[in-house]
């Protein structure tokens, strides 16, 4: 059946529409072509080079979509590992909360967040501090959290303007703590996509100047989350739209990647709306996807059956 508005579209608009579609298809083709080229290059890395990296092709899923009980309507986003407690932190956007999870995905506590509009990323920094990105307000807030914390108000803590006032809902989502260089790594979702660093001095020191990092070789459509591995000095870049987890070295060059599409890397189903990634002390990788499902990847792991826990 013909679409009514297309039937009466002027020829010039037809040409414009075809150009837009052709451009989109070409961009996707170039990304796929770049990914295929890199896959061939990746296969030529030596064993020593693989051992010096995170080496994502060595990972397989061991937990497939475990439900984060009680968070079904809250839209979790972002993920961070806390080495002090051996737990995970995530944030929720629709009903702003900081949520602490066990490594098995059990909800341990929910801390209401006041003064936040759209928290999209969370990262454990040091000294009991957490940094939370509010995408819509383009701000980063550094808070102090301990075992007795039951609520948090952004107005009680320092916040930093991340700029890009016209980014709307395409602002910063990814955040990771580079403990080797005492700086935050930040990922701007898209429009344009970009990686940045933000030096952070001392317990109460002000943040430095936001600095752009190399990201042109990161063949992803968007950045939804970041994680930093101090053992290798490499970063993980999670892309929701590309359904991809990418490893970058310290110069922003791709090292390895895995697809988050069902049928690959032990996944029975694709990870939809991947919104957060982190690594624990043992090197296990955790990914949270909407609607509030937890996935865990381990190196040299056996194939497991789908896991769905209410």
TrEMBL record:
It is found in: Cell membrane. CDD domains: SdiA-regulated. InterPro entries: 6-blade_b-propeller_TolB-like (IPR011042), YjiK/CarP (IPR009722). Pfam families: SdiA-regulated. Coiled coil: none annotated. The keyword Membrane applies. One of its GO terms (cellular component) is plasma membrane. It comes from the Bacteria. Transmembrane segments: none annotated. The keyword Cell membrane applies. Keywords: Cell membrane, Membrane. SUPFAM superfamilies: Thermostable phytase (3-phytase). Belongs to the YjiK family. This is Uncharacterized protein YjiK.
């Amino acid at each position: 059946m013909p679409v009514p508005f297309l039937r009466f579209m002027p020829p010039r608009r037809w040409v414009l529409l075809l150009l837009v579609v052709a451009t989109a298809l070409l961009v996707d083709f170039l990304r796929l072509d770049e990914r295929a080229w890199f896959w061939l290059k990746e296969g030529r890395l030596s064993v020593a080079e693989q051992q010096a990296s995170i080496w994502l092709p060595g990972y397989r899923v061991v937990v497939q979509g475990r439900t984060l009980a009680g968070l079904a309507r809250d839209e979790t986003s972002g993920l961070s590992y806390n080495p002090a407690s051996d737990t995970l932190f995530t944030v929720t956007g629709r009903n702003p909360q900081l949520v602490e999870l066990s490594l098995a995905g059990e909800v341990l506590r929910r801390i209401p967040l006041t003064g936040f509009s759209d928290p999209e990323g969370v990262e454990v920094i040091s000294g009991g501090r957490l940094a939370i990105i509010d995408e819509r307000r383009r701000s980063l807030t550094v808070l102090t959290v301990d075992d007795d914390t039951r609520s948090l108000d952004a107005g009680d803590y320092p916040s930093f303007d991340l700029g890009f006032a016209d980014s709307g809902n395409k602002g910063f989502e990814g955040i990771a703590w580079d403990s080797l260089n005492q700086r935050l790594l930040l990922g701007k979702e898209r429009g344009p996509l970009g990686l940045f660093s933000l030096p952070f001095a001392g317990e109460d020191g002000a943040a430095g100047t936001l600095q752009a990092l190399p990201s042109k070789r990161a063949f992803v459509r968007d950045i939804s989350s970041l994680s930093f591995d101090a053992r290798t000095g490499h970063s993980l870049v999670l892309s929701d739209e590309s359904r991809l987890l990418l490893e970058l070295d310290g110069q922003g060059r791709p090292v390895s990647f895995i697809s988050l599409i069902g049928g690959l890397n032990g996944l029975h189903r694709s990870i939809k709306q991947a919104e957060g990634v982190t690594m624990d002390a043992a090197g296990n990788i955790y990914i949270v996807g909407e609607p509030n499902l937890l996935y865990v990847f381990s190196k040299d792991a056996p194939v497991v059956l789908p896991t769905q826990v209410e």
